[in-house]
Write a structure and sequence with these properties.
Alpha-Beta Plaits; 18% strand
């Protein structure tokens, strides 16, 4: 293959190439220092998840008041593929799937616009929150507070929300901070039903009197001289004594509130719980911005909490439960170490087989250059260094030197034939350029189809293919430009025989013998190949297959579910028993439990389900992680409690891929509840015959008790009240207001 004239002309200008590769080297170092380091690639999948909390609402009420108004606006969005909603337990999860190829960020903005249009039709207590389905992996840090005796959790939560959370939100890369564990502090009015009946005061009158006492709003402005003064009307009772003197209208005249109810300062009741080592705690969850590097974010969060630890009242202290930056650092250093070792072994093999002359030093230089240029390409294309891209670079280390080796051998062959100087360089490069380009492009073409894989598979295949393809193309460019230039500058020098030359000759001679034997015994050769192939398939069948192994991040996560309808008190008792057993384990340092879901979070578990995060001691070895997980399942066996053990990161990866809690959930959608219940039972019956499944749990098999109040028209007419008036009496008495 004759070299193109532009390439030959450019190779005659070494200064140009020195400047070009110098710039590429500088940019490669810059990209290496600034490229995000993650566990897995960014999950930009066009599915938006909307979580709407409406505490106390039944499934039917959620469907009519939340789901239908939301879906009516969502169904008008462009590029929409499907909308699915799951409701119950005071929460609705709506998954909105868009056409493949759309921008998830634009889809998220469109969904928020639809939510804003539907907000006027939603109940006052409904709080929708939307995020891209893959955002679960952005949960990078979980903390809990160890609260001493005598310190109220609501004081700790208020201090965190007012002092610490604003500082964390101001950190670069932090997107969201969630704090939960206690109800907000409030002046709590507990009506005395006997006193209300005695004075003839209804719940509605009591609630109306309280509403009239809380006032905060603008009242216009005044012009005073040269100034315009805004007017604000404010009356916000802050002490229980103020409310006790509040007059409440009654048939016999106003009655002080203190004679009708008990007024105390207490947290608002909640239908979830957060516990650290069996004691009430306050939890904090930190999410990073998409594209932000995990390690700097988690380090900044940890540093901020260390500086502000005195802001917690009463000697309360932070306990780190989960730190994704720790796991990212372990994975990065492990793969980077393997990459460096692989590169050093490749260079050592070059010196062993080819000797220590200047040309081999050129080959050794080509490997890190190809790696840096590959990382620069990943940085430009918006990728990160993760399990897939680092794995691809590690696998490709041995391939990066191949192009340069054949160019080196071709040029040295011409020099040894007597064509000295640049003439030998040009002739050697011309001889091998065609096979060099063809061989590399053939290898790259193997990965090219992976760039067009869509859906969830594309999330993993595209970064791997980009890392391999860009690095191989970089090695090809180096072999055709930098290697000839450096060899031309070094020139030909006779060198000593390589240490491995005799071994290579011996290997070549044995290879010739094996080839001759194969050609003379074709049937035996074919039979041996088929036998080896069969053995490979047999071994493959017994090798365990996992999406990801349990990484040693120092934390195990145990998901649990009690029978639907179980009370929060019963769930806390079961979790307390499980926590006590876990704390007795010699490998366990701390146990954090979350039961149910706070309305300010993205969690959707009901008050009969949740998670237990088990923090292991630092000396626990990664080899024993599976054994510890199995032991935990044995230790926490409680009647009627379904459990599953994983790690927090694997759990978040699963939620990011499917939008569902792990291990996986089968959901049946339809319009008629009896038919859905029948289908769910049929699905469970068939799944029981799948040998790979260890446990099955069907929510519909447990009917949830529901108390329904149906007004009697005759009685309503007799007493002169309406259903709305009856509801106005019941709502504050039972559900609070």
């Amino acid at each position: 293959m004759a070299l193109p004239e532009p390439l030959r002309a450019s190779l005659r200008r070494p200064v140009l190439w020195v400047l070009l590769y110098g710039a590429l080297l500088v940019f490669g170092v810059y990209a290496f220092r600034h490229i995000p380091i993650e566990i897995l690639p960014k999950f930009d999948y066009p599915v938006i998840s909307i979580v709407t909390h409406y505490p106390g609402a039944t499934a039917g009420e959620l469907e009519n008041t939340v789901t239908r108004p939301l879906e009516s606006e969502l169904l008008a969005l462009p590029n929409l593929v499907a909308v699915r909603s799951v409701m119950g337990g005071g929460a609705v999860q709506t998954d909105v799937r868009f056409r493949n190829g759309t921008d998830p960020q634009q889809d998220l903005q469109a969904v928020y616009s639809a939510v804003d249009r539907a907000r006027s039709h939603l109940p006052a207590g409904a709080r929708p929150y939307a995020e891209i389905m893959g955002a679960a992996i952005d949960e990078v840090a979980d903390y809990a507070v160890r609260i001493p005796d005598g310190v109220a959790p609501m004081r700790v939560q208020r201090a965190i929300q007012t002092r610490i959370v604003p500082a964390l939100r101001a950190l670069p890369g932090v997107r969201r901070v969630e704090v939960f564990g206690s109800g907000d502090e409030a002046l709590w009015v507990q009506p005395d039903l006997t006193a209300l009946r005695h004075y003839g005061v209804g719940m509605a009158a009591l609630a109306d009197a309280l509403r009239r006492q809380v006032l905060l709003g603008p009242s216009g402005h005044l012009s005073l001289g040269h100034q315009t003064v805004l007017i604000e009307v404010r009356h916000l009772p802050e002490r229980a004594a103020e409310l006790r003197m509040l007059p409440v209208p009654a048939p016999a005249g106003p009655i002080p509130l203190g004679d009708l109810a008990r007024v105390v300062r207490a947290p608002v009741p909640i239908r979830y719980a957060a516990e650290l080592n069996g004691r009430p705690s306050i939890a904090m969850v930190v999410f990073k911005q998409p594209g932000a590097s995990t390690i700097p974010v988690t380090q900044a969060v940890q540093g901020t909490l260390e500086r502000m630890r005195d802001q917690l009242p009463g000697g309360a202290r932070w306990v780190r439960i989960y730190d994704q930056g720790h796991l990212v650092g372990l994975i990065y250093h492990d793969l980077a170490r393997n990459l460096i070792i692989g590169g050093l072994l490749a260079v050592a093999a070059l010196f062993f087989l080819l000797g220590t002359h200047g040309g081999v030093w050129v080959l050794a230089l080509s490997i890190p250059m190809a790696l840096l240029m590959g990382i620069a390409g990943l940085y430009v294309t918006g990728q990160s260094l993760n399990l897939l891209t680092l794995g691809a670079l590690t696998v490709g280390v041995g391939l990066f030197a191949d192009d340069a080796i054949i160019v080196l051998e071709s040029i040295y062959h011409r020099w040894e034939q007597g064509e000295a100087g640049l003439a030998g360089v040009w002739r050697g490069l011309r001889d091998i350029a065609g096979p060099d380009v063809t061989g590399t492009l053939t290898t790259v073409s193997v990965y090219l189809p992976l760039l067009f894989v869509g859906g969830l598979a594309g999330i993993f295949f595209i970064p791997f293919a980009l890392a391999m393809g860009l690095s191989l193309l970089a090695s090809l460019a180096i072999s055709l430009t930098l290697v000839p230039l450096l060899l031309g500058a070094i020139g030909y020098r006779r060198h000593r025989r390589a240490l491995g030359a005799a071994w290579v000759e011996w290997l070549a001679e044995r290879n010739q013998r094996a080839l001759r034997w194969t050609l003379h015994h074709p049937r035996a050769s074919l039979a041996g190949a088929v036998a080896l192939f069969g053995v490979s398939l047999a071994v493959l069948a017994v090798v365990p297959v996992h999406f990801l192994p349990l990484p040693n991040e120092g934390v195990l996560l145990e998901s649990f579910t009690l029978p639907p309808g179980s009370s929060l008190r019963e769930t806390r008792a079961a979790v307390g028993e499980m926590t006590a057993r876990l704390r007795a384990d010699p490998d366990v340092r701390d146990v954090f439990a979350r039961i149910g879901s706070a309305g300010s979070t993205r969690y959707t578990e009901r008050d009969f389900a949740g998670e237990i995060q088990v923090v292991l001691k630092p000396e626990v070895a990664v080899q024993s992680l599976d054994a510890i997980a199995a032991r935990m399942l044995r230790e926490t066996r409680v009647t009627a409690v379904q459990r599953n053990v994983d790690t927090p990161t694997i759990e978040r990866v699963g939620e990011s891929l499917s939008g569902l809690p792990q291990p996986f959930v089968v959901r049946v959608f339809g319009a008629r509840l009896p038919e859905l219940r029948r289908l769910s039972e049929e699905v469970v019956r068939r799944l029981r015959h799948v040998p790979a499944l260890t446990d099955l749990f069907n929510n519909d098999a447990y009917p949830v008790t529901q108390l329904r109040i149906l007004p009697r028209p005759a009685a309503m007419a007799l007493y002169g009240i309406t259903p709305a008036a009856l509801y106005a009496q019941l709502r504050p008495a039972i559900g609070g207001e």
